[in-house]
Amino acid sequence: MAAQKTIDLQEFRTVYQIPAASARAILSKLGYITKKVNDKHLIICGSANTFGKSDEYFLKHAVLEFRRTMDVASTLQGNFFEFSEEAEVKGKKVITEYGVSKIDAEQISPKTPSLKRAPNASSVGVTAQSSALIPIETHTAPAPEGGALAALVSALTQAQAAAAPKDPLLPQKQLKEAETQGYRITTHQLAELLGMSPQTISSKKSGFIKMGFEYEKVKEGTSTLWKVKQVD
Questions:
Q1: Residue 50 has what DSSP assignment?
Q2: Residue 98 near residue 83, CB atoms below 8 Å
Q3: Which of 56, 113, 166, 223 is deepest in the core (most CB within 10 A)?
Q4: Rounded to 10 degrees, what is the CA torsion of 132, 78, 31, 48?
Q5: Number of neighbouring beta carbons within 10 Å of residue 28
């Protein structure tokens, strides 16, 4: 019996430079199952992707969409960011293909700087014989002359973000998840969820209330984190 394919969650976070809360939000929305084996958290492949794409491709598309829209609605619908275009270059017709499969992990820019942080130094807890996160179809298409590719990518990603539906209650849902899971979140993460600046959040006293939740300061070494609790 062939071993079930898995992806190391810590390696997934490292490749895409995303914090644990964002990674788990993406996996939860996609319906992926994780399990702990020998102190490593493993993503179980094949547990959510039903569109005939590789799990690496499916997750890569979800990361790109999440960073631009804070949701994965298009990924869940199988509406993948791929296209081909015919153009004439120096008198010859060529077909340019582009999309998620042509974007390397380091090219996926975050929506805001706070969404692109290196994972915590400590392991999130999962290892065993697992496959490393394989770089997905990272063949980069030659850039057309005059920087046209850069402009094309920018226009397409903006269109993708505009087309994707946004959940107006997403901040509250993520705050509720932080409470339920017992997450302690950083000042930058809380600032992003509440639509405030990190400086404003830092100046707040422990126990302040906003959007139906109370935020308690928790010291962790030299760092200050926030514990979330819903209020009546």
A1: -
A2: yes
A3: 56
A4: -60
A5: 13
Q: What is the pLDDT of residues 13-64, one digit of tens each?
A: 888 888 888 888 888 888 888 888 888 888 888 767 777 888 888 888 888 8
Question: How many CA atoms within 13 Å lie on the side-chain side of 214?
Answer: 7
Cβ atoms of 26 and 66 closer than 8 Å: yes
Helix or strand (DSSP H, E) at 230: strand 223-230
Residue of 3, 12, 65, 58 whose CA lies nearest to 34:
12
Q: Are 124 and 9 in contact (CB under 8 A)?
A: yes
Strand-by-strand arrangement of the 40-44 sheet = 6-8, 40-44, 34-37
Tokens of 20: 């644990």
Q: How confident is the model at residue 228 (pLDDT cuts 50, 70, 90)?
A: very high
Q: C-alpha 112: how far from its chain's center?
A: 12
If one counts every other C-beta atom within 10 angstroms of the C-beta of residue 125, the result is 14
Domains of the chain: 6-163 (no CATH), 170-230 (1.10.10)
Give the tens place of pLDDT for each residue, 56-103. 888 888 888 787 778 888 888 888 877 655 666 667 766 555 567 666
